[in-house]
Design a protein that fits this description.
Strand order of the largest sheet: 6-5-4-3-2-1-18
Radius of gyration: 22 Å
Structural class: alpha/beta
Order of helices and strands: EEEHEHHEHEEEEEHHEEHEEHEHHEHEE
Largest sheet: 7 strands, mixed
Number of helices: 11
Helix content: 10-25%
Number of strands: 18
Distance between the termini: 11 Å
Length: about 300
């Protein structure tokens, strides 16, 4: 099962006619994750033809409006669409109070449970795991408490070598699960068929790192080392580094430096200041350090 990232919005604080605040839709191992939820996210989800009912886990990086103000409306829409399954919301401590206050004042009745996972640690931690996917926090350095998120596929099953398996009548279909999991097969005479004979290597697991608003921070490098794709904010060009530091943001050159030092496969930039009309200046700057850098394309699924 392939992993796809759809960037719903990528500009900084103020929405424009052609771009929306930060929000991303990640499909990994048949799971659908929403990452940040700026204003207008549910409209962008509609345009992307995403199925609302498949979103069971939402990850919010921090409580600045351009990253979370779309969340109350989205949750209200879930109710109107007849949702019954629990919704898990991960975000900084205070997100429960923010949302529940809005729901109380507006008398929004949900009809389903919202399970809050409030975060306050300053070191990376595993916050989600099932049999196929793991999610870790990436502590960042913004003006308020902020996390990025690392999504990792677990190692996949090996592929069956059916031509080789067919040579042995003792191997039945019910044995396939154990063989794909890497186990040897013991014949009735005690002879051990090594797994590498019965299978070929698994498809490589992929990973995706989302680094939201942050100053240049080398502490993230060990966490995101060798990820398949990195999204990193780059609000300014490097000639405005002083402003980037003051406002808690990163320059394109700095984002590329992080990508280069972490040896990631691909870098996608985002969260651009509205002062820039031509966004190619960001890739021009970043590619001097990390050539495999790209601009986001809103609503276009990218295979990871």
């Amino acid at each position: 099962m392939s992993t796809y990232l759809t960037i719903l919005g990528f500009n900084s604080a103020i929405p424009t006619v052609n771009s929306s605040p930060t929000a991303q839709f990640l499909e990994m191992e048949e799971r659908s994750f929403l990452i940040d939820c700026g204003e207008g996210t549910q409209v962008q989800l509609r345009k992307a033809k995403a199925k609302f009912s498949r979103i069971n886990h939402i990850f919010i990086s921090h409580l600045h409006g351009d990253h979370c103000f779309g969340l109350p409306g989205l949750i209200a829409s879930f109710r109107l669409l007849g949702r019954e399954n629990p919704l898990h919301v991960y975000g900084p401590k205070g997100i429960k109070k923010m949302l529940e206050t809005i729901f109380t004042i507006t008398e929004t009745h949900r009809g389903f449970e919202v399970v809050y996972h409030e975060l306050d640690k300053t070191e990376s931690e595993k916050i989600y795991e099932d049999n196929r996917v793991e999610v870790y926090t990436i502590p960042l350095d913004h003006r308020i408490y902020c996390n990025g998120y690392l999504f990792k596929e677990k190692p996949k099953d090996r592929h069956l070598n059916i031509k080789e398996i067919a040579k042995y009548d003792e191997i039945e279909t019910c044995d396939y699960h154990n063989i794909k999991a890497g186990k040897d097969f013991v014949l009735s005479d005690g002879y051990i068929l090594k797994n590498e004979i019965l299978t070929t290597g698994p498809a490589p697991s992929v990973s995706y790192a989302f680094c939201s608003d942050t100053r240049y921070l080398e502490n993230v490098i060990p966490i995101i080392k060798n990820v398949t794709v990195l999204y990193h904010e780059s609000t300014f060009l490097h000639d405005l580094k002083e402003m980037a530091d003051y406002t808690g943001h990163t320059t394109a050159l700095e984002a590329a430096t992080i990508a280069q030092k972490a040896k990631v496969g691909k870098l996608i930039l985002g969260h651009f200041s509205n002062r820039y009309g031509d966004l190619t200046v960001f890739t021009d700057e970043a590619r001097t350090v990390f050539p495999n850098t790209f601009l986001p394309k809103a609503l276009e699924p990218v295979k990871i």
